[in-house]
Design brief:
CATH topology of the largest domain: Metallo-beta-lactamase, Chain A
CATH class of the largest domain: Alpha Beta
Low-confidence stretches: none
Number of helices: 13
Number of strands: 22
Strand order of the largest sheet: 6-5-4-3-2-1-22
CATH superfamily of the largest domain: Ribonuclease Z/Hydroxyacylglutathione hydrolase-like
Oligomer: single chain
Strand content: 15-25%
Helix content: 25-40%
Radius of gyration: 23 Å
Number of domains: 2
Distance between the termini: 9 Å
CATH architecture of the largest domain: 4-Layer Sandwich
């Protein structure tokens, strides 16, 4: 039996994660992610390099859009098999896919109107990549699998897989595939996205002592993160000083994991009485729904978070926490005259309800805009963070008078040292390591770093490259 592995996404770039494993006549797709980099967006529209109907199964590492966001297209074009993942991943993926489909439909409608007005055609179709109906068609394919429970992928038990906690986001997985060929066994690890040790809420990444082949992410394979020790003290200073000034703390945040971590740290400050009770508004329908999934899956929490839940001090049950669902509830926030904390999406201020809160607060010297995540070049968040004096929001220009702060240490991805520490749990050298899910510079620097520190065989695969695993 030959084992073939094709790198169909996240090869020398970060998004669009997709790897095809073929063994014993079985074809398994590991992740089916959306490309989010602007210069790779055309790949989302390209035909799949395989007949979707011929794929026997999909295994998802986690529910971020760059890992699950092309599933509606896959199903629409003929995929009929199961999608294996943890229950939490399935529930979060449903929320994220529905939101992505709505955005696809809105974007297509906007393009149609704009192109008609301009009398031209754009580079991409004026139809959505997929619709809400397409996203909903994915839901029946999910087959939740608990951590550490093996499931069979090929006849005669020759290929099996097991999910292990990756410590990245709730329900995220490292996938271990075992393939038995000619009386011998091969173990292939798909890291997905590896989390950092000692992060709140989720457990630490599972470590492994044996694997023949490893696909390892390298999002931050060329850098070392700030430590997390100062997060609470920085938050306390921002909240206390802004409250004393009579302003609001406005936090642009991503719906999955980041919003929940922000609530976690605020809750710890309240328990320790480092800040006084303050009204907190989570103004993101998606983040609110995902937070409900967190509450449902308390069995996945780390020990510290479990203790908070058992002591009735969960960050998701704070008496001053309000989940703003409707548009009217969101608008009502800006009529509140006392200092409050507002957590809203999107995390880079590119859309969503955060823009309306920025309009109300960015001209107020007493308010503080607090960034807790990466701000990509060209986004509104990056322009504010870079110190522009006047910014355009919702079609109008506003002088930036609010305080602008940034809290480091929130990354859900392991850095190069943490990734290496994870790899070095191997008791024997793997036959080969493939560095994926990182920009070309990051992936190649991490390849060299692993080679220098271990002497192992490490490569950076190219897009659409196929290798045979002997």
């Amino acid at each position: 039996m030959k084992i073939k592995l094709s790198f169909l996404g996240a090869a020398q770039n970060v998004t669009g994660s997709r790897h095809l494993l073929q063994a014993d006549g079985t074809s398994v797709l590991i992740d089916c992610g959306l490309y989010q980099e602007r210069h790779f967006a055309n790949r989302n529209w390209d035909p799949f390099p395989f007949p979707p109907a011929k794929i026997n199964a999909v295994i998802l590492t986690h529910a971020h859009l760059d890992h699950c966001g092309l599933l509606p297209k896959l199903v629409k074009e003929g995929f009929k098999g199961p999608i294996y993942c943890t229950e939490a991943t399935a529930e979060i993926a449903k929320i994220i896919l529905l939101d992505a489909a709505k955005l696809q439909e809105e974007d297509a409608e906007y393009k149609r109107k704009r192109h008609k007005k301009q009398g031209r055609k754009g580079p991409y179709p004026e139809e959505p990549l997929y619709t809400v109906e397409d996203a909903e068609a994915v839901f029946g394919h999910f087959e939740p699998i608990p951590y550490r429970e093996r499931f069979i992928l090929a006849k005669d038990d020759k290929v099996e897989a097991t999910l292990y906690d990756a410590g990245h986001v709730l329900g995220s997985s490292v996938i271990r595939v075992k393939a038995r060929l000619d009386g011998d066994e091969r173990i292939i690890l798909f890291s997905g996205d590896i989390g950092r040790p000692d992060r709140p809420i989720v457990s630490d990444p599972t470590v492994f002592h044996k694997a023949d082949y490893i696909l390892i992410e390298s999002t931050y394979g060329d850098r070392i993160h700030h430590n997390t020790e100062s997060i609470k003290s920085e938050f306390a200073e921002i909240i206390n000083s802004t409250r004393a000034a009579g302003g609001n703390v406005v936090i642009p945040s991503f719906a999955l994991e980041r919003s929940q971590e922000v609530l976690y740290y605020i809750n710890e400050l309240l328990i320790a009485k480092k800040i006084q009770p303050i009204q907190i508004y989570l103004d993101s329908p998606m983040a609110s729904k995902i937070t409900e999934v967190f509450e449902k899956h308390a069995d996945l929490f780390d020990t510290k978070m479990t203790n908070l839940v058992n002591n009735h001090t969960s960050p998701f049950d704070m008496p001053t926490l309000h989940l703003a669902g409707s548009a009217n509830e969101s608008k009502a926030i800006n009529r509140i005259t006392v200092p409050i904390i507002i957590i809203a999406g999107s995390g880079m201020c590119t859309g969503g309800r955060i823009k309306y809160h920025l309009v109300e607060n960015i001209t107020r010297p007493e308010s503080t805009i607090t960034f807790v995540g990466y701000q990509a070049t060209g986004t509104l968040g990056r322009r504010i963070l870079d110190g522009e004096k006047v910014v355009r929001i919702l079609g109008s220009k506003y002088p930036v008078k609010a305080k602008i702060e940034r809290i480091h240490g929130f990354s859900a991805h392991a850095d190069k040292n943490e990734l290496l520490d994870w790899l070095k749990n191997m008791q024997t050298p793997p036959k080969q390591i493939f560095v994926v899910h990182g920009e070309e510079k990051s992936a190649k620097e991490f390849r060299d770093f692993i080679s220098e520190k271990t002497g192992w065989n490490v490569t950076v695969p190219e897009y659409n490259q196929q290798v045979t695993l002997n």
